[in-house]
Amino acid sequence: MCLTTANLFASKGYQVSVLEVLTPGPLNEFLHPSIRQKYLNRKSKWSIGTMRKLVHIMKEYNVVHVHMRHVYRYVFLASLFTKKKLILHDHFNTFPENWKSKVIFRILLKRKIYVSVNQIGSKWATDFLQLSPDRVFNVSNIIIPKNVKTGKHNSNKLVLVSNIKPEKYIEFIIPLALEINRKDSSVVIDVIGKIMDKRYYKEILTQLKTYGIQDRVRFITNVDSVQDVLCNYALGLHFSKKESGPLVLLEYLAQSLPFVAYRTGEVAEKLYTSLPMFFMTNHDELAWSEKVLDLRHQEIDYTVLNTVFNANNSIEEYFNQWLRIYERSLY
């Protein structure tokens, strides 16, 4: 979401910079050409020199928008020397409710702005942390759609777009692939994402080989722009049991790709009202395989998918929400 928000404001003429706290990543090729990139190159949390550098950088800007709690904690220390009113953009989907967390977060967020990507987070901030409601906001994530690809979706190929780590429940692909392969051995599932947990990844590969379906599930880890390749698939998948989004469902819809997903997260709840047939409330591989194979052969009304996507992905509304938040952070 850093890229989405930065590029959106830059495209409207605002002066935007993006600061990477650790080593430079691959952001450059995805940023609007007017955006300035800065690098902290932090080697240690306790480096006084790096902290001074961060303080100096922060003093240049009117608005400091911080993604993720762990980054915010570090930037908060620097803010003590700048008196900047930080914005915490919280992407987490877990919200601790114990006295220690309450004390820590109330200190971190005193006279600051808290923005959650779901209503559960904003309610936690106002009800549990007892933050002032005028400094708590809920902004659902969006994506910037690329031109919808034309052509017939490959009916034998399914896709799961997800980084590879236990939290995403990727291992469900094993019983699901087994069940699908039993009914239709022509189906292949591609998993597109970065390997975040090598041990977990290797365990899945081992099990796939054990069951003899290593050629039915393929991992593709070098795709930077997922929307560019979704036209190659008949159906998207999403297994995760707990999400704040999941944003990938909007990416599927942006490319008119139907999907089968576990019902969890803010985005899923919004889409469910229009597309209930795309969601599951369990992880029973038999039920999933039947749903997947049924949808794969159904005639899809792509105009409906496009309408639902536009109704749940308003770029202008997203921009106006963040503009109001930025203005609020100035006083």
Sum up the structure in keywords:
single chain, 331 residues, alpha/beta, Rossmann fold, 2 domains, six-stranded parallel sheet, four-stranded parallel sheet
The biggest beta sheet reads: 6 strands, parallel
The CATH topology assignment of the largest domain is Rossmann fold
The top-level CATH class of the largest domain is: Alpha Beta
Low-confidence stretches: none
Domain count, please report it.
2
Mean pLDDT across residues: 93
Compose a concise summary of this entry.
The chain has 331 residues and is an alpha/beta fold.
What can you see in these coordinates?
The protein is built from 12 helices and 12 strands. The protein has helices at 2-11, 48-58, 69-79, 99-108, 119-128, 173-183, 198-210, 248-254, 266-272, 285-297, 302-311, 315-328; strands at 17-20, 36-39, 65-67, 87-90, 113-116, 136-138, 157-161, 188-192, 217-220, 235-238, 259-262, 279-280. The protein folds into 2 domains: 2-142 and 314-328, Glycogen Phosphorylase B (Rossmann fold, 3-Layer(aba) Sandwich); 157-311, Rossmann fold. Helices cover 38% and strands 14% of the residues. The protein is globular. Strands 9-8-7-10-11-12 form a 6-stranded parallel beta sheet, with helices on both faces. With 331 residues, the chain is α/β, with parallel strands linked by helices. The two termini are 25 Å apart. α2 packs across α3 (69-79) and α6 packs across α10. The longest helix is centred in the last third of the chain and has 14 residues, at 315-328. β5, α5 (119-128) and β6 (136-138) form a beta-alpha-beta unit.
